[in-house]
Each structure stands twice: as structure tokens, then as C-alpha cells.
Design goal:
six-stranded mixed beta sheet, Preph_deHydtase_CS, elongated, about 30% helix, single chain, amino-acid biosynthesis, about 400 residues, lyase, alpha/beta, phenylalanine biosynthesis, about 25% strand, D-Maltodextrin-Binding Protein, domain 2
Length: about 400
């Protein structure tokens, strides 16, 4: 469902860059201009193939040469050969320092932490608030926005499972990550004192991160809403006198609320990792720290997960995260029409983050090995690691 604040034009909803050449959006024109020269270079590295974009992986079985490595990396990320349009954008294209002119979608109301993350990732971008996580995915897919910045995990609350499921359902690519230190504040309408508050309203994760502090302040009840800034907006609009909001200091400024307490999170080391999404992947590199995110499924049987992990351990590739999610039939069919593995109750998909670039032949060979016994494998993105201060 699309947020009222984000209306996707009818023309955008039906646009298909692969078939609609009469009036493509400006992004497509730029993409074609950039890709034309790159395709002529890439074409000499390897012959064209007829692999469908839905094919999850296509890798060499032996140590590749430099040119073969680049071609294999391209095919793995795109699912098609270098000559197939549209060509990929470069790392510089997708990770501009300022993001000037980019429209970046995020979930929540203005003042949400996701908006702050979008501004940190692309300081000069134009932010597009979306009511739901899926709306942000749709905004990028339908050319309403150029990027999306969405939370993936929190150091206290753990993973945002909904976004893992949406990564599989939609065909966007992770092109970067950004870490944001979360500093919660207790907000209330002007003149309201802490002792007047009986309830705290916020996103469930924010409430969980401040549970002990709120209890010490004598606030007994909790009210969960879709996002932190939305809670601040609601208590301001309804002029609630007995309810406070757990949100950011920016939300207090935007909605005219008082800050009754700052840094109320139970653990001061509270960091959320956000993923940066785009319609096309970036070309991976090896001259800086990169991370690669994949999702795969395995046959039942003893030692299957051990074999999958050994693929990386034997090549000394470090795993920074592993997440399992229920094996849902519909999203998997969307992700890979060729997947024919039978689906049973309590089958799981495994989401894994690797400290490796897909430009590295070692990582390519690891995934080639994994593909030999995995029933499904898809690369979600290969992108620079965020090494900045949260």
C-alpha cells in the first residue's frame, strides 16, 4: 500500500526500461549513456551470453583470469552478460559524496531516524517519506525515488525481519550501508512534566531500547506505533497531556515538543545499521573494504549447513552476520522462477554477510562452490563497508 504522502504516478507505475523507449525517465537516459562505453569495454572481456536476469549465479569453476573475474562478477550481480542493457553504474555513480539531486526514500514521518540515516548517506539528497517499508522499495522500483535507505539491524533490538523478507521479494540491490548512533529523547507537549506522564508512545524497537529508563521514570504503559517521529507528530496533533513520545531531538523541533529527558536508551552503545538500495548494483572493487550480502537455501540432511559455512572458512572469508528466515514460497518464486526445490514446513533461508568483494576471485569461487549444493542462491549486493563513526 502506497503512503498518502507518496503517490506513484500512473506513468511511473507502468514504465519498463527494457521495453519503453519512447519516453524514458532521465535516470534511464543517464544510465544508457554511462553504460554504452562500459559495454564496449566489457564486451571484449567475455562473449555475450543468454542467461536470464533471473538466474541467481553464473561463476567459473576454476581460478579466473582478471578479465574473466570482472565478467563473472558482473554476471553474478546482474544475472546477465555485460552486453545486455542496462549497464551497471559505477561505485562513484551510486555513492556520490553529497547525493546532490538524488531522491531518497525512507520509512516514517519527517524527523525519523531513517531520515537522519538517509541524510548521513546522501547529505544533499531530497528525502521521500513513505508510510511502509515496502512503499520505499516500490518508490525506487517505480522511479519515484533514486535510492532507499532502510534499517536492517540494531545493536540492541536485533534484526528488522520485515526488511529481510522484502529484500527477497523485490529486485533492488544493496549498494551501501550506513551506521547511525541512536539517541532517544522523551518528548511531550509544552508545559507537561515527567510526573504527568502515564504512557510512552513510539516504535516497538525504540520502546524496547528504553524500557528500563521509562520504568524508572514511573511511566507504566507503552503504546506502539509505526515510527518514532510518527509518535511525536501524533501527541502534538492530539495535544495529549499524559503521553510522551520516544523520538529524536529533531522530531521535537519539527513538531514543537519539549525534550523532558535526553539519551534515555538503556545502553549508550545503541547503533542501527541501514542499507542503501538502488535499482542497479555497483561494480565491486578490491581497493577498499567491501561487504557482500547473499541469501541461500539448502537441502535437508546432516552437515548441510556445516558444508555451507566451510565454503567460506576454508577460504578464510569472515562472516559478519547470519540470519535465518522461514522459507516462503511466493517471495522465492518472485526472486527465482527457475527454483524447483520442494517447499516444506520449517524450511529456512539463510542471509549471510561476507567480508569480501565480488571482484575478489576467492569470493567468486566460494559462491561457485556453494552453488554446487545450494537449492537457491542470490547475491543481494556487494558494497563498501561503512567504517565511519556511527
Amino acid at each position: 500500500m502506497v503512503s498518502p504522502s507518496l503517490r506513484i504516478p500512473a506513468a511511473a507505475r507502468v514504465f519498463d526500461p527494457a521495453i519503453n523507449t519512447r519516453c524514458p525517465p532521465p535516470h534511464a537516459v543517464v544510465m544508457r549513456m554511462r553504460s554504452r562505453s562500459r559495454r564496449s569495454i566489457a564486451a571484449s572481456a567475455s562473449p555475450p551470453g543468454d542467461a536470464s536476469i533471473r538466474d541467481p549465479i553464473s561463476l567459473p569453476s576454476k581460478e579466473p583470469s582478471a578479465s574473466a573475474s570482472a565478467s563473472a562478477s558482473f554476471s553474478l550481480l546482474f544475472g546477465h552478460s555485460p552486453r545486455s542493457p542496462p549497464g551497471p553504474l559505477t561505485s562513484a555513480d551510486l555513492m556520490e559524496a553529497s547525493g546532490d539531486g538524488l531522491k531518497v526514500a525512507y520509512q516514517g514521518c519527517p524527523g525519523a531516524y531513517s531520515e537522519a540515516a538517509a541524510k548521513k548517506a546522501y547529505p544533499s539528497c531530497h528525502t521521500v517519506p513513505c508510510e511502509y517499508f515496502e512503499t520505499a522499495f516500490q518508490a525506487v522500483e517505480n522511479w519515484v525515488a533514486d535510492r532507499a535507505v532502510l534499517p536492517l539491524e540494531n545493536s540492541l533490538g536485533g534484526s528488522i525481519h520485515r526488511n529481510y523478507d522484502l529484500l527477497l521479494r523485490h529486485r533492488l540491490h544493496i549498494v551501501g550501508e550506513v551506521r547511525l548512533a541512536v539517541r532517544h529523547c522523551l518528548l511531550a507537549n509544552r508545559g507537561v512534566k515527567i510526573q504527568n506522564l502515564r504512557s510512552a508512545m513510539s516504535h516497538p524497537q525504540a520502546l524496547a531500547q528504553c524500557e528500563q529508563t521509562l520504568t524508572k521514570l514511573g511511566i507504566e504503559h507503552r503504546e506502539a506505533v509505526d515510527d518514532t517521529a510518527g509518535a511525536a507528530k501524533l501527541i502534538a496533533e492530539q495535544k495529549l497531556q499524559d503521553t510522551g513520545a520516544v523520538a529524536s531531538s529533531l522530531a521535537a523541533q519539527l513538531y514543537g515538543l519539549d525534550i523532558l529527558a535526553e539519551n534515555i536508551q538503556d545502553d549508550t552503545d545503541n547503533v542501527t545499521r541501514f542499507m542503501m538500495l538502488a535499482r542497479e548494483p555497483i561494480i565491486p572493487r578490491t581497493d577498499k573494504p567491501f561487504k557482500t550480502s547473499i541469501v541461500f537455501s539448502l537441502e535437508e540432511g546432516p552437515g548441510q549447513l556445516f558444508k555451507a559455512l566451510a565454503v567460506f572458512a576454508l577460504r578464510k572469508i569472515n562472516l559478519t552476520k547470519m540470519e535465518s528466515r522461514p522459507h516462503k514460497k511466493k517471495p522465492l518464486r518472485i526472486a527465482d522462477d527457475n527454483c524447483s526445490a520442494p517447499l516444506k514446513h520449517f524450511d529456512y533461508l539463510f542471509y549471510v554477510d561476507l567480508e569480501a568483494s565480488m571482484a575478489d576471485p576467492n569470493a567468486q569461487n566460494a559462491l561457485a562452490n556453494l552453488k554446487e549444493f545450494a537449492t537457491f542462491l542470490r547475491v543481494l549486493g556487494s558494497y563498501p563497508t561503512d567504517v565511519s563513526e556511527a
